[in-house]
């Protein structure tokens, strides 16, 4: 039982670091995450996920997994080393070369560290071709490290050179079925971002080096975003400004005096309806009952998972307090025993340990509870620390535990509301907390 107790004094946390004078950090989430020991910047465009950051990232990966599995996604894992031969076959090597990390093995065979995997996955499908149309659609996905030699890495995880990405690739028997699959994946993206309580927008996007006929981008609305988005208030026109000719701010589908609203966004997802661009090159085919062998119709769908993690903190937090999407907070609950003197202090700590044990056996709260046992520090200071780190729930154990029944104060940090509850009511209250 006691192994499940987590003490703040033992966590890699609360080093009390502050942003140095004249530091070049320019966005709120970078300051919050770096100086609260969530993520450490390592070298250009690369970072270390510290324990709190890794816990949040692991949870985010589980949420993404759930949503991908819910639409029939089948998880795979492709190699990070992608042969140049395949990228040359799809004629992407030369165009993408500036942003690829390339290397050669001892036999002088050239590779890149994959930034995206259309070539490898379509080549995989070709090995099983022709595949019966009865098996389609196939939706492969993976959540792995990707690499891009960014000209200007910045804002920590928002624009890194090595990052966590979810990439899905769909294969269908016809264009219309591929379009249906495309819509289903886009809907799952909207569900995912809604579950994370994020303000997001879906806009038309550019197809760029990946290609295809239809593309959408999902953005978090934030002034830190490097993309400029255009919205029409009268019709459904929503687009990345890259797609609009001459940087016009007039809606292309409405009348001439309909001005578009512009807003910056952080791109967190990008979807492409690819058609047969890759399947024709690699010969990914399917067997149809009526028409024999035909090329598969593809889609590809990315989510920048590590960027989404920091982007969430960017849009949800205030200047000095981290706020996570509640579902992925590193820990859900922080228990704060009052300082007290001698016997009282011991009683507050002992009650906190018992409370932690009681919560840890609840199915939704296993490993979600920490105890801030630093009783030499004032309650006010520790309360400030707990709010700063964004635990969704803080439970204060103080004088009122001497009442009959004992009373605990629980603070919901999203609303800053306090409730005074007995242990039974507290457990009822917390039994509804959704965790992953
Ligand atoms: Zn319009």
Element layout with pairings:
Blueprint: E1 6-7, H1 28-35, E2 39-43, E3 46-49, H2 51-70, E4 74-75, E5 81-83, H3 84-89, H4 93-96, E6 101-104, E7 110-113, H5 118-127, E8 131-132, E9 138-147, E10 162-172, H6 175-195, E11 200-204, E12 214-221, E13 227-231, E14 238-240, E15 261-275, H7 277-282, E16 285-288, E17 292-295, E18 297-304, H8 305-316, E19 333-337, H9 342-360, E20 369-371, H10 379-389, E21 393-397, E22 408-412, E23 417-421, H11 423-430
Parallel strand pairs: 1-20, 4-9, 8-16, 19-20, 19-21
Antiparallel strand pairs: 2-3, 5-7, 6-7, 9-10, 10-18, 11-12, 12-15, 13-14, 13-15, 15-18, 16-17, 21-22, 22-23
Helix pairs in contact: 1-8, 2-6
Bound molecules: zinc ion (ZN).
Spans where pLDDT lies below 50 across 5 or more residues:
none
Total count of strands: 23
Helix content: 25-40%
CATH fold description of the largest domain? BirA Bifunctional Protein, domain 2
Global morphology = elongated
**Classification by helices and strands:** alpha+beta
Quickly give the CATH architecture of the largest domain: 2-Layer Sandwich
CATH superfamily of the largest domain: Bira Bifunctional Protein, Domain 2
Terminus-to-terminus distance:
21 Å
Strand content: 25-35%
CATH C-level label of the largest domain: Alpha Beta
Largest sheet: 9 strands, mixed
Each distinct ligand: zinc ion
Round the Cα radius of gyration to an integer and report it: 25 Å
Q: State mean pLDDT (0 to 100 scale).
A: 94
Give the tally of structural domains. Answer: 2
| Count of DSSP H/I helices | 11
